[in-house]
Amino acid sequence: MFHLIRSELLKMRHTFALKLFIAAPVVTLGLGYFLSGKSVQLTAYNWWYTLILPITIAIWCANIISCEKRTQYQNILCLPIAMKKIWFSKLLAVTVLLFLTSLVMWGGCTAFGIFTVMNIDPLNGLGGCMLLFLTYIWQLPLIMWLTKKANYLIAVLISFGCNIVLSMIGAESNLFYLNPFAIPARIVCPFFKMHPNGIPIENGSFLLNTGAVIPAVGISLVLAVLCFWLTVWLFAKGDRKHD
């Protein structure tokens, strides 16, 4: 499986998509510094999970499938490997990119905090970035499958639109866990100390309570397992016949 994941990442080595795992955090930090100066951490983290990270994920997932569609899947149809392993390796490759870009974002924000103002301490920053990583994983197989059934642009636009619109619906209510898109924006509130709209959270707010974090992450991970399994099964079910 390691070799399959490495192969998927090598296919992307000359693409804009692969460069995004570093470029996306750099752009976010630059935007945060331009808009907020010394309070770069607050602005950068907020722009990260409300805008930059969702579009980055959509581009990765759409790119890894669209490159196969351009060749009518000839690069994988000739391989003596089960289709479910190929699909799963693609999912894991994008998951690796998501994890790496989360670390780059945390490292960049922490470095900026050292030279400007440490609004968010390193442990809270790391915790928030890892929570975002865990709660965005479930979207990866769905975007990839949408790209397979439709095309690159449609998959990116639908993913981006859902994350922008649905992530704000109910994010601050007690029933936020019913909307998987709102979970990331809600559970990072105690770590980044700000509302999903970027406004600092007042002292004593219920949004600073970390009690909802573990159940919400659990829901996201269960959803991720279901989405991974379902799309792997659907891809394998098609045997060696593809769109």
TrEMBL record:
Keywords: Membrane, Transmembrane, Transmembrane helix
Transmembrane region(s): 16-35, 47-65, 91-117, 123-145, 152-171, 212-236
Cross-referenced InterPro entries: Lanti_perm_SpaE/MutE/EpiE-like
Transmembrane as UniProt keyword: yes
Protein name in UniProt: Lantibiotic immunity ABC transporter MutE/EpiE family permease subunit
Gene source species: Sellimonas intestinalis
